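ugh ok fine here u go
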Amino acid sequence: MQKIFIIGIVASGKTTLAKQLSKEMNIPWYELDNIVHHQTDEGRMKRTPEEQVEVIMEIDRGGKWIFEGTNRESYQCLLDMADTIVFLDPPLWKRKVRIFTRFLKQNLGIEKCNYKPDIKMLKLMYKWTRDFENNRLAIEAQLNVYNNKLIRVSDKNMMSTILNK
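structure:
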């Protein structure tokens, strides 16, 4: 495994797993949210889908990588580029609890984030979760095309499942 794409919805454990794999395998990891929304002198700006793909391609030219993010049109190229795709799919109830716990931690200053952790963002995270569940069949069908390099993970033993592949 040299090019790993970790995909999942909000609070599925993408960043946690990416950090663990990066450390264990000595491969750099990238949050796709930071490729979509990058920091400039004027503040946080959204790149166009074309610019997002350009950044991804530039990183790819550097060799090994771990990308983690949600299902977004602008990074569908990663499904083809990755030699391993990890789909994180913990139970819905667990993701809902994690969203609220993260919100509390961010507002207490215990956990950092690149956005304003307000009620609007909390509602958006729950909306994105609903949207994901409503589109689950289409997302599953899209991932099934890559079954030969797809690892589905829904439990706590993520690391051992992936490293034993």
